[in-house]
Design a protein that fits this description.
The structure is a single chain. By secondary structure, the protein is an alpha+beta fold. Helix content is 38%, strand content 17%. The protein has a two-stranded antiparallel sheet. The chain binds zinc ion. Zinc ion binds next to helix 3.
């Protein structure tokens, strides 16, 4: 992929990245996890299917459903904000 170097800038502070300059791409993937166990809610399979169909057709659009399974965030960063980006993510970890 070729990037338009002239217009490249840090998306946090707006600093323009000079041609050939150092920049970073912060990429975060949020992926639906599973422990392989399906909770036993006591519901009939018909009920479960009915509820799932309602969720698909009524409540959420296709984009929202896709994002619940997989979402990738990309952000162009200068050197200073590379560190802040990393630290903010690491700061979220409390347990
Ligand atoms: Zn910056």
């Amino acid at each position: 992929m070729k990037l338009d170097v002239k217009r490249l800038g840090c998306q946090v502070c707006g600093t323009e990245i000079p041609p050939g300059g150092v920049f970073y791409i912060g990429r975060t993937e949020i992926i639906s996890g599973s422990d392989g166990i399906l909770p036993d809610t006591g519901e009939s399979s018909e009920n479960i299917i009915e509820k799932a169909l309602q969720e698909i057709t009524m409540v959420k659009n296709e984009q929202e459903l896709m994002e619940e399974v997989y979402q990738e965030l990309r952000i162009i960063l200068c050197g200073q904000y590379r560190i802040l980006y990393r630290d903010k993510i690491l700061d979220m970890i409390k347990y």
